[in-house]
Amino acid sequence: MSDTSNTPVHEEDHTGPIKTPKQLLLAVLYSFVVPIFVIIGLVYYVTSANKPQAGSVNLEQSVTARIQKVGTVEIRDANRPMKTGEQVFQAQCTACHTAGVAGAPKIGDVAAWAPRIKTGYDTLLNSALKGKNAMGAQSGGDFDDFEIARAVVYLANAGGGKFAEPVKPVPVAK
Ligand code: HEC
User: Fold this and answer.
1) What CATH class is the domain 85-158?
2) Using a 6 Å CB cutoff, which residues line ligand 1?
3) Separation of alpha carbons 130 and 123, rounded Å
4) Which residue spans of the chain are classified as CATH 1.10.760.10?
5) Residue 104 Cα to ligand 1 middle (Å)
6) SS3 132
7) Which of 84, 126, 135, 151 is deepest in the core (most CB within 10 A)?
């Protein structure tokens, strides 16, 4: 009845656009091979994004960067605002001197500091800059020796010392 009359239309629905082996081959090519190339292209695009475009780099800068020797000299600004003793202490000394790590005299511990303060400011400063027993040299880090000196005074005075605030030495041209 109506079933038989519908059959041809029905069949036509199921035969898609692919009718010959050549079309099948093309369909395979477009659905599998082309996306792979698109992906490869995208990967190239993404990874090349942080490479500078040709002609957009400062030639002099890039050449010096390439031919520079291993290791650089960092020039610190000697005229930057100096940190206070307390700031230096909080940044570099507190790790040992607050809890008394490795036998470090605790900040504010008058009994521990009294005999050390007696040895004089220069001795204490020298110990801090160059290191003493379990304390490594505090010089040569992020802070200027003058800032370490301020921290020594801050630390010693908290333990009963009466050292004067160090005076910033006039920078010597090297
Ligand atoms: C790694 C832990 C550690 C750090 C960090 C540290 N110290 Fe010490 N410090 C010690 C120890 C331990 C001693 C005791 C050394 C000794 O007399 O044997 C000490 C002793 C001292 C003394 C007394 C030295 C003397 O001659 O008796 C001073 C002053 C001092 N520290 C200052 C500082 C300052 C200022 C800083 C931060 C810039 C600092 N320390 C950071 C561990 C530390």
Assistant:
1) mainly alpha
2) 88, 92-93, 95-97, 101-105, 116, 119, 123-124, 127-128, 132-136, 138, 148, 151-152, 155-156
3) 10
4) 85-158
5) 6
6) strand
7) 151
